[in-house]
Specification:
Blueprint lengths: L1 E5 L5 H12 L3 E6 L12 E4 L6 H5 L1 H11 L3 E5 L3 H9 L4 E5 L2 H4 L6 H13 L2 E4 L2 H9 L7 E2 L20 E7 L8 H15 L4 E7 L5 H10 L6 E5 L6 H6 L3 E4 L8 H8 L4 E4 L2 H6 L6 E4 L4 H13 L1 H18 L2 H15 L9
Parallel strand pairs: 1-2, 1-4, 2-3, 4-5, 5-6, 6-7, 8-9, 8-11, 9-10, 11-12, 12-13
Length: 361
């Protein structure tokens, strides 16, 4: 099968997809208005559009159409419903599978009625739509799109995300997260919950909070840590390459993601694959991949006290941490491995040629 993959070529997620698909024997052509990132498999044929984003989304449809005519793919898989979705729409290539990622269908249509109108047009122009989660698929249907999205979860490599614990200090429990430092991801709530947990636990057990990631809220979060008197027990590691995420997870005893909104909980399943018990908010994407009291604990979003209750319980109960962690990895192996994700995407590619299904009522 020959697939034209239209996406940001510097995205670690796009690179994982094209590398995985070419590894399965597909003839993959990556077309992009972004320069290629490191690690693209040499078997993937790269086609860099002459214009760069964002202007390429509006001005490169003719160039893209000419490239597609030369490549003659069986289908075009455009990733991200706004910029590349618009470019695919303007090109008019059929069949096009449009993969939505999250902020493109959650945040973009809230900007203005014009943004919502443009997004709906992009979605409706596609022959089919793919979503990483059921909750995001429902969001797409709520936008009035007359096709039921295929669900293509973004799995983890269970041979890289493995159980482990690094730098363990006797008598110390490390709570941590790996998230972008933006308000959406609720890192402020985590810091407040951690402060409450420290007060409840007392000096008998030393607690640390490790935050991996960068973003627009970093200064505000560092100031919050200072106001709460936590500077000695909270570490900001900054952003790390995705290849180092397992290492950062291995430093933790408990993983936390308290997002206010989340389209798919990939960070939670990466932590679960490492046998870390997870505490997550009830944001749809996180709740979809977590089983309450089975693989982790789900708490109401924007509720620091509820998160502190869950953290206190896990800190005090080692057996519970072990049980949830082991069950989490077992669930990842059953539902969210990278091989399963590739199987599903290839299955969807084949189904697209038979035509999409209508949205469920």
């Amino acid at each position: 099968m020959r697939v034209a993959f239209l996406s940001a070529a510097n995205s670690v997620h796009a690179i994982r997809w094209v590398n995985g698909l070419v590894g399965r024997g597909l003839d993959v052509h990556l077309l992009s208005a972004h320069d290629a990132g490191a690690g693209v498999d040499p078997r993937v044929q790269m086609h860099r559009l002459s214009r760069s984003a964002p202007w390429a989304y509006l001005l490169s449809s003719g160039e893209l159409a000419a490239s597609l005519e030369t490549i003659a793919p069986d289908l075009l898989n455009a990733h991200y419903a706004t910029g590349y979705g618009l470019l695919a729409r303007l090109t008019g290539f059929r069949p096009t599978l449009l993969s939505v990622w999250g902020s493109d269908v959650y945040d973009f249509p809230r900007i203005s009625p014009a943004h919502r109108w443009m997004l709906r047009g992009n979605l409706r122009a596609a022959a089919a739509i793919a979503s990483t989660s059921d909750c995001m698929a429902r969001r797409v249907c709520a936008l009035g799109v007359p096709v039921r999205p295929f669900v293509t979860p973004f799995g983890v490599d269970e041979q890289i995300f493995v159980p482990g614990r690094l730098n363990a200090v006797p008598g110390e429990i490390v709570i941590g997260t790996v998230k972008t430092l933006a308000r959406t991801y609720g890192v402020d709530v985590l810091i407040e919950a951690f402060a409450m947990t420290v007060q409840r636990i007392g000096p008998a057990t030393r607690l640390r909070l490790e935050i991996t990631g960068a973003g627009p809220e970093q200064s505000a979060l560092e100031a919050l840590v200072g106001r709460l008197g936590l500077s000695a027990t909270v570490t900001f590691h900054g952003a790390v390459p995705h290849a180092r995420v397992p290492e950062m997870l291995h430093r933790m005893d408990i993983f936390v993601a308290l997002s206010r909104e989340e389209s798919f909980g990939v960070a939670a399943i990466e932590a679960a694959a490492c046998e870390k018990p997870v505490v997550v908010s009830d944001a749809e994407g996180l709740a979809e991949v977590t089983r309450h009291e089975e693989t982790g604990l789900i708490v109401p979003r924007d509720h620091a006290a509820a998160a502190a209750d869950a953290l206190t319980r896990l800190v005090r109960d080692e057996a519970l941490r072990i049980r949830l962690g082991r069950a989490g990895r077992a669930r990842v192996l059953q539902h969210y491995t990278w091989d399963r994700s590739l199987d599903r995407m290839i299955e969807v590619y084949r189904a697209v040629l038979a035509g999409p299904s209508p949205c469920a009522d």
